[in-house]
Specification:
By secondary structure, the chain is of the alpha+beta class. The chain has one domain (3-71, 114-384): Phosphatase 2c, domain 1 (4-Layer Sandwich). The protein is built from seven helices and 21 strands. The strands form five sheets. Strands 1, 2, 3, 5, 6, 7, 10, 11, 16 and 17 form a ten-stranded antiparallel β-sheet that branches. Strands 4-21-18-12-13 form a five-stranded antiparallel β-sheet. Strand 6 (147-151) and strand 7 form a beta hairpin. Helix 2 crosses helix 3. Keywords: Hydrolase, Magnesium, Manganese, Metal-binding, Protein phosphatase. Residues 131-384 form the PPM-type phosphatase domain. It is an enzyme of class 3 (hydrolase). One of its GO terms (molecular function) is protein serine/threonine phosphatase activity.
């Protein structure tokens, strides 16, 4: 089938949602300059940069935000939604971040001596076995169904290939393969980070931009089409710098409370922002977060296979059994926690009686849905030491 006919027949009706249940009208979004910050007041925990779409104010705005979890100790009657009390002010800042380096050992800065130890687990949608997390010779990223992720001494990343491309017929000119696209996206993010050594300033959005450009180049040459959401987090000093486009999730846990959870970017229900050959979304449209962290914090990163099936309370409950609040730390390797979270999400995804976050959001949209959401599950857990 000719390329133009392929687009007319298959692409536009299929592009958008993860499981394509209806045609979603594509909305065009304008691009805008962005601002980042290298420092902010100590009494704030997070700096969040958002794009705006207003023609009167086309610039991104930056919010200093302090998170204080109002959630009490876990109990069977606890709410399914963690609430936050926020203190925020808006301030514009202008600075630049460059990129960082690769050393296959925990990263630590001379100023704060913080480093990451981490584990990662993946279970593809149609299996009950963990994927191998051993890097192969071709890619530095790990494939889990249509998910992909990478781990480094100072950074983590996850991407979720958009399943709607399965409805696009391949031909001799084009191959629809979101799994390959997401894997390339994470592979090139890893290699881009590997180029630099002990550079304090880093902008994960620039890393994502470079990875995006190289992935597009490869896919154009190979005749591959696809799209993916993506999240990259980088540790520098006492800051965790994050860029996210789409609905992958990240939360920071301190003393068994979630002090930060990123927002999802969706054009409409089940239709996330995404990077790809024919997507209007670009890395510059991503959300940027800078989180103040400290020793003992836990970071949980995952594809929507985790966060569509587990509430924040479920995640905290699972982690609580592996921590010792009296001693203020973990009792196990983070790999044990990531395995446990992946299995719990897998069980929830196959349970028709499970009250899942995805079910709740579907019902809010007026759609009938019951149980968990079957999906590829990728989760990375890191401890700050």
């Amino acid at each position: 089938m000719k390329f133009s006919k392929l687009l007319q027949k298959n692409f536009y009706p299929s592009f958008g949602s993860r499981e394509i249940t209806s045609t979603v009208k594509r909305q065009l979004f304008t691009s805008s300059p962005f601002f980042t910050a290298s420092a902010f007041p100590l009494h704030f925990d997070a700096l969040i940069t958002h794009p705006t779409k207003s023609p009167l104010f086309p610039f991104r705005y930056t919010i200093y935000r302090s998170f204080h979890s109002s959630k009490k100790k876990l109990n069977p009657q606890s709410s399914k939604h963690t609430k936050y009390q926020e203190v925020s002010s808006i301030k514009h800042v202008s600075s630049s971040h460059s990129v960082l380096s690769f050393l296959d050992k925990p990263f630590s800065s001379s100023q704060n001596s913080l480093s990451l130890i981490h584990g990662a687990s993946g279970i593809a949608k149609h299996t009950n076995k963990f994927v191998s997390t051993v890097k192969d010779k071709q890619y530095f990223s790990v494939c889990c169904g249509e998910d992909s992720f990478f781990r480094r001494h100072d950074s983590l990343g996850v991407a979720d290939g958009v399943g709607g491309w399965r409805n696009v017929d391949s031909d001799e000119f084009l191959i629809a393969n979101s799994a390959l696209y997401s894997r390339k996206l994470m592979h090139y993010a890893y290699t881009e980070l590997e180029k630099y050594n002990n550079v304090k300033d880093v902008n994960p959005t620039k890393i994502m931009q470079a990875s995006y450009e190289q992935s597009i180049r490869d896919c154009t040459l190979e005749g591959v089409v696809g799209s993916s959401t993506a999240l990259i987090a980088v540790l520098r000093d006492d800051e965790l710098r994050i860029t996210n486009i789409g609905d992958c999730g990240l939360c920071v846990i301190r003393h068994n409370n979630i002090i930060f959870r990123n927002e999802e970017q969706q054009h409409s229900f089940n239709y996330p922002f995404q990077l790809g050959i024919y997507s209007y979304d670009k890395p510059k449209d991503s959300q940027e977060f800078t989180i103040k962290i400290q020793k003992g914090d836990l970071i949980v990163i995952g594809s929507d296979g985790i966060f569509d099936n587990l509430y924040e309370e479920d995640i905290l409950e699972e982690i609580a059994q592996f921590t010792n609040p009296q001693q203020g730390g973990l009792r196990v390797d983070p790999q044990v926690i990531s395995d446990s979270l992946a299995w719990r999400a897998k069980a929830a995804s196959e349970d028709i009686n499970h009250e899942s976050p995805f079910q709740s959001r579907a019902m809010q949209e007026g759609l009938y849905y019951q149980g968990g959401k079957k999906d590829d599950i990728s989760v990375l857990v890191a401890s700050i030491i």
